[in-house]
Design goal:
alpha+beta, Nuclear Transport Factor 2, Chain: A, six-stranded mixed sheet, 3 helices, DUF4440, NTF2-like_dom_sf, DUF4440 domain-containing protein
Length: 141
């Protein structure tokens, strides 16, 4: 299916919020890009269910020293009330030291006039990074 230009813009605007939270070192307000019952399927962790658990997960990432995240959309498929996005990511610690990189899939849902994240999953392309990240972020159930 052909992607609407404004859909890519909506996704980019949502990611600007998430990326900005890492730069600031505070994820407050990031939950606005998620539906109420969203799920985050992070590698090496149980599913984070709901906005509160997702915020705790992202704050754990910030607390361990991640200060920059780059999310790059490769493809978006528009299915009316849902959209499927695939892309790549990179995570950096202070001093722009790259900690991780990988790929992701996000399911977006049209809710209250905007696209919000319903589910997100990603996988590291670097096994050493995965071990580093999963050993430092507490499980959120």
């Amino acid at each position: 299916m052909e992607t609407k230009v404004n859909l890519r813009e909506e996704i980019r605007n949502a990611y600007n919020k998430l990326e900005g939270a890492f730069t600031k070192g505070n994820v407050t307000g990031v939950d606005s890009i998620y539906v109420e019952n969203a799920e985050l399927l992070a590698p090496g962790h149980d599913v984070a269910k709901g906005k509160s658990a997702i915020l705790k997960y992202w704050q754990g990432i910030v607390d361990m020293g991640i200060r920059k995240v780059e999310l790059n959309t490769d493809k978006v498929e528009d299915h009316n009330d849902l959209a499927v996005e695939t892309g790549t990511y990179r995570m950096y610690a202070q001093a722009n030291q790259q900690i991780d990189q990988g790929k992701y899939i996000v399911l977006w849902k049209h809710t209250d006039g905007k696209m919000l994240v319903e589910r997100g999953i990603w996988n590291s392309s670097n096994p050493e990074s995965l071990q580093f990240l999963t050993s430092r972020i507490p499980q959120h159930r």
